């Protein structure tokens, strides 16, 4: 499979492509016994930067023995605590495979698109944050156009765009977990049930 996947979040079935990509790339890692960490990066204090925490919020009950969801609306992972969280992850798990999920600014024609790549990301690059590269794989959603005023752009990003991206990404990951593990996802949690039925 290609090392880079680009999909349009306005297509309601595009989550299937995310799921298929993750199964192709991550199932062998699961089979090896390695831990996979979905690291959802961002903050709920900025609409444009809330993509990661929204994805983490939707998936927060899906952590299993070797699949872990970190970064939610309640406990976001952002520039101020990212280094500490990475230290915690590396201390807890031996050589974990990290999938970094984050919002991104880009070309106007790419707004609303999701990119999945087998490479790390630089969180906070749009705001000139000096943060380490994160992940062996990245899932980024283009929430708005890049400009000379990225901070203001993130603050004035449409919530609808961020929600569409978070829905597609979380559903793709949900179905990957469903197909790759024996976890019983159909319990009495309304968030999990709603993801299954969408």
TrEMBL record:
Q: Does the keyword Protease apply?
A: yes
GO BP, one annotated term:
proteolysis
**Has UniProt tagged this entry with the keyword Hydrolase?**
yes
Provide an example Pfam family for this protein: DUF1256
Top-rank taxon, per record: Bacteria
For molecular function, the Gene Ontology terms on record are:
peptidase activity
* Keyword entries, A-Z: Hydrolase, Protease
Q: What is this protein called?
A: Spore protease YyaC
């Amino acid at each position: 499979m290609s090392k880079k996947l680009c999909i349009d979040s306005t297509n309601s079935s595009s989550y299937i492509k995310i799921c298929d990509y993750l199964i192709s790339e991550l199932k062998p890692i699961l089979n090896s016994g390695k831990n996979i960490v979905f690291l959802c990066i961002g903050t709920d204090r900025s609409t444009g930067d809330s993509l990661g925490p929204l994805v983490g919020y939707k998936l927060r009950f899906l952590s299993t023995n070797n699949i872990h969801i970190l970064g939610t609306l309640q406990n976001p992972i952002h520039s101020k605590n990212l280094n500490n969280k990475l230290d915690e992850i590396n201390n807890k798990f031996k050589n974990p495979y990290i999938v970094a999920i984050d919002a991104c600014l880009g070309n106007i024609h790419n707004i609303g698109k999701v990119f999945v790549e087998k490479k790390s990301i630089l969180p906070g690059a749009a705001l000139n944050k000096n943060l380490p590269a994160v992940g062996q794989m990245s899932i980024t959603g283009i929430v708005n156009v890049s400009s000379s005023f990225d901070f203001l752009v993130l603050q004035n990003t449409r919530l609808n765009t961020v929600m569409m991206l978070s829905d597609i990404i979380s559903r793709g990951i949900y179905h990957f977990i469903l197909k790759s593990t024996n976890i019983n996802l159909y319990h009495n949690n309304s968030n999990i049930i709603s993801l299954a039925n969408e």
